[in-house]
Write a structure and sequence with these properties.
Layout: H1 7-19, H2 42-46, E1 50-54, E2 64-68, H3 73-85, E3 90-94, H4 98-102, H5 106-112, E4 120-123, H6 132-135, E5 140-142, H7 153-159, H8 164-178
Parallel strand pairs: 2-3, 2-4, 4-5
Antiparallel strand pairs: 1-3
Helix pairs in contact: 3-8
Length: 179
Amino acid sequence: MLRPADATETVGAWKVALEREDGPVALALSRQKLPTLEETRREGVERGAYVLWESAEANGLPDLILIATGSEVHVALEAALKLDEQGVHGRVVSMPCWELFEAQPSDYRDEVLPPDAKARISVEAGVALGWKQWVGDEGDSISIEHFGASAPGNTVLEKFGYTVDGVVARALALRTRVG
């Protein structure tokens, strides 16, 4: 299952799909218009997750890691930039495919998600089920745990916290709790 963030990651996802010989592949693409981010990388998709952006002040051990997939990656990036201005030096990880990331050597997984960085939050307009593996016991997930919200898409996303300010608020609360 691949959930690319933008056109660049979609090219990488398509390459993964064409090269896979040992099982099915599903691409979950967004219907809404999304920006093509300068930071996304096709080759990052092949590894399942990669560091999209990191604060210059983080020095390899960020205060907070925002892990996002699909259409939420650009929101996580904007939130991280806003947090950086507030002195919370973070990292944004784009994770288009859990399975590919899980198959990577542990040293690569630890490079992307340093074990000592406990303040981690996932951002995906879906359920939190499965994210604990990546955010850890102390982490948090911005998720939707029910079905049936009816309103224009942007209204629903705003109500459930999928805005830059919503992600910043949850991230600051997590950073305060985890330290």
